[in-house]
Amino acid sequence: MQARTRRPTLCLLAAVCLAAAAAALAGCGSGGAPARAPDYGALRDAPGALGRLYAQGNQLLGGGAGAFAARLRELRGHPVVVNVWASWCGPCRVEFPYFQRLSARLGRRVAFLGVDSDDNAAAARTFLGEYPVPYPSYSDPDKEIFRAVAPNALGPPVTAFYDASGKQAYVHIGQFASAADLAAEIRRYAGA
Prior knowledge:
The protein is α/β, with parallel strands linked by helices. The chain is built from seven helices and six strands; from the N terminus they run H-H-E-H-E-H-E-H-E-H-E-E-H.
């Protein structure tokens, strides 16, 4: 009799475990349906370095750490938010819509940059097609930029905040829980 009562319990436990595993695996590759991109029209006529930055919106740029450092120098005078992401990173997919919305809202006061690290270029372009942003991302397949931005981090997502003088003010390791959390750190560390 005892075996009969255990079998349904074991079957129920197995079903719960399988459902949890399926849900976890579903979250590994994607964060669900991509959010619709905001209207980035107001950024098209941004002045100076911001205008040049947003003219390359949603592009995957080469040039490595040297090109990235040159862009940071060009953006001096503006606070900068750098998001390190990868197409295979589930938490990156979850937080990318926050960067879409906040770059649209704050992009005339704050520069946004992406770094696609440890990724395949074709997969990264597909990801940017699903989650378009008004700013470019630098391709970083060998994690050279990643190590310069966040030497203590193990992997994406990572967000670095630079003040208007070009000094790195803070590095947030891991996913933001909400757009409000990201906005609060932008205010605190980028002064916007």
